Amino acid sequence: MNIPELLQQLTLEEKASLCSGGDFWHTKAIERLGIPAMMMSDGPHGLRKQDETGDHMGINDSIKAVCFPAGCATASSFDRGLVERMGKALGNECQAENVGVLLGPAVNIKRSPLCGRNFEYYSEDPYVAGEMAASFIQGVQSQQVGTSIKHFYANNQEHRRMSSSSEMSERTAREIYLAAFERPVRKAKPWTVMCAYNRINGVYAAENKEALTDILRGEWNFHGFVVSDWGAVNDRVADLESGMDLEMPSSFGMRDAEIVKAVRCGRLPEAVLDRAVTRILRIVQRYLDGRNPDAVFDRDADHELAREIASQCMVLLKNEDHILPLSKTETAAFIGKFAESPRFQGGGSSHINCHKVESALEMAADYPVLYAKGYETSDDVVREDLMAEAVAAAKAAKVAVVFAGLPDTFESEGYDREHMRLPDCQNALIEAVAEANPNTVVVLHGGSPVEMPWLHQVRGVLEAYLCGQAVGGATVQILYGDVNPSGHLAETFPIKLEDNPSYVAYQGEGDVTEYREGVFVGYRYYTTKKMPVLFPFGFGLSYTTFAVSNLRTAQDEYQSHDVITVSVDVTNTGDRAGKEVVQLYVLPQTKTDSVQRPVQELRDFEKVELAPHETKTVTFTLHANSAFAYYCTQKKRWVVETGKYLLAVGNSSDHLTTEKMLTIHGEKALPAEITLNTTIGDVLRIPHADKELEKYAGAFGISSGSSDENAMGESTADMMEAMMKYMPIRGLLSFGGGEVSIAECKALVEKLNVLLENANLNNRSE
């Protein structure tokens, strides 16, 4: 297609029509000009291809496909290469099914364990979410199929998701909620971005010019088109003006007419419409150029890949007395309906119509296993007959394995969880089985953390998350030791829901949700507050043991523009091969009044495979201008302050075993602007400002030239500092006995702003 020529040939009505769907899943075709339709399909963890009469909530069937592990699981792999392989498989499936754009990945931050859609989101940490998303995008798009990273942005609850406003500071947005998108947009360049349903500080995401144009395109250099979440449009003309190009699904011509009317009456420049059409047609052309009609959707091969991926995602949370792996010759009792009918995916738009599903009971058929159903998932009622059967099976076995988790009705797109508990009947079952057999292991299926009141009663816990249609085989491989578990938590498991930093403000009041915890999300909050948790971010056990040591850098001091190489040694100290997730955190040590920072923040990770007693060196690359920075809302930019920063490496956020202190030379902590309300303490941070203030010391009854002890037993200098530190400049008027005029105060402010400007120039040039 020659897009400039097409723009000349398209009528105004045709241009407007190209900016909305032709049906539920396709862009519009303009047959007279040879513009074809392009299909999009749901699928962060599987291809949910439907026909044009489909739905967006997973209610109607789609084609038979393969359900891979959901985002909650794949993030726990901490394995970029693995996620990229999954993306490649999905991209190939899209080619085989003539799908141009796969709607994913979903990278919204897990602000609360209650969000109904957490199962398809990656992490509470924006770095992990961004890295996983970038790998997924690179995998899919290597097959010449586009992705649509979503939901941009601050879509962190399902409650009132189409009307709620996520209210947050600019710093919170930049460091947490935008950061999860920035990394994959810059690094992997998705073809499209899907905007969220919600409002952001009162403005709908679909008409948020700051997000869609100023940040996404202006700062991050995004060149694709922005598509609405299905049904997210509030004001179609405002959307176009703000940078939202394609409305989905079809509006049956109604909103197309609004666009035409707006152009004809002069409200909307036709150039804005042309811009959106151009962006859409470029992606359609890219899809056409990359078509591979020879691609084959090998469902059985992809099923095997799904099992391999699942086995690398599960997280071993407890393994007391080495209860796992199980013996292949001793009897085990598999208890719980999920052993026979596993829950392996979430509900809603990502629901996959699987071509086959394997259960743990089926895949353990060659081992001595007893089975008891234990509970029904259709209700939360303790069935005495099922309980008695389960207890009997537990008593007859060497080890009892309870397959528990969240039923479909507990978490889904469209609504939030009401609590963080398992069904009462399952908690009762676990306690009864553990009493009958002290060798009890719990396997958990679900997309989010759960409270574990029975944790002290069981010897093992395996978090299987929602690991896709091959979950049964992967679970059995880990339980019996054919695969050494290597997953680590990409989110914190709090002891109880009330411990979560968003607890008080989550869901909000009416259509307003305040993000009162700011940047203190997940482990950033728990570690800063020194709060005990059930399982910390980054945690995961193995059937072997590892030691992480000898952290080193080439220097002890760096400039804020330097690239820093960090190396550590990782040793497998056990007797079997395994994989460890090595995590690098930055801990600011220099305290200032300029900003409150979390105690520690993850800055890199690497998954490394080691044979018994093998040692490997893992190398990280830190860019100082981002690794040590915070976002300054007054200066509207990222700032690295001069100070001490501790580098610490380990295998979870609360197990950091090797560290090194660095000095980073960046900016001095300076105020953004001097006004009459700026405190003297802030002014004194500016080089040479003390000379300007000395002449006003007398206004406070202090003689700046004396060092004699005063009546309070303190030196004049100490007294001056103590009294003036939190005094605003305007205090000279109140305490100067009339000797300092308003004009003098304003003149002082002007002089100090000149000093501040010079200091900022020196800061930026050093």
Automatic annotation (TrEMBL):
Q: Which domain of life is it from?
A: Bacteria
Write down the PROSITE patterns for this protein, in alphabetical order: GLYCOSYL_HYDROL_F3 (PS00775)
Q: Name one GO biological process term.
A: carbohydrate metabolic process
Q: Which UniProt keywords apply?
A: Carbohydrate metabolism, Glycosidase, Hydrolase
Show where the Fibronectin type III-like domain sits: 580-653
Q: Which family does it belong to?
A: Belongs to the glycosyl hydrolase 3 family.
The name this protein goes by in its record: Glycosyl hydrolase family 3 protein
Q: Which organism is it from?
A: Ruminococcus callidus ATCC 27760
